[in-house]
Amino acid sequence: MNLITLSGIVGADPTLVTFVESDNRVAKFSIAVKDYSSKHENPEPMWIDVDSWNGLGDRVMNLIKKGRKVNIHGRLAISQYEKEINGVKVKMKKPVVKLSEFELTDKKPNEEEPSETPQAPKKSRKAA
After folding, report:
1. pLDDT class for 39, splitting at 50, 70, 90?
2. Domains of the chain by residue range
3. Burial 88-117, CB ≥16 within 10 A → b, else e
4. pTM
5. Which CATH class is domain 4-104?
């Protein structure tokens, strides 16, 4: 069975992509997961992309915000895309979690307090 559970901190507010031809929607966000290491005191977090489709995606858009601690449960998949490197198109692959459920594990952050959220890496998102 393909099942993954991760705990992390949401790096940025989710984005919603709507596919007009099928009326399907996907909410996309990333979480920072601590990567424990005996060699480093504070290793850089791993960033895991999460996709949530249709009704569950609507719940994500309403409840998940930058800085929230969340447990996610889903299925691990491999996303494939092309990236141009030095003028050459290269096929890339990256893991992504297809969300099946989530749990918020902290109280709603206070908008006025500074966030301890790790900064999400900059990337562009395109609809497939």
Report:
1. confident
2. 4-104
3. eeeeeeeebbbbeebeeeeeebeeeeeeeb
4. 0.77
5. mainly beta
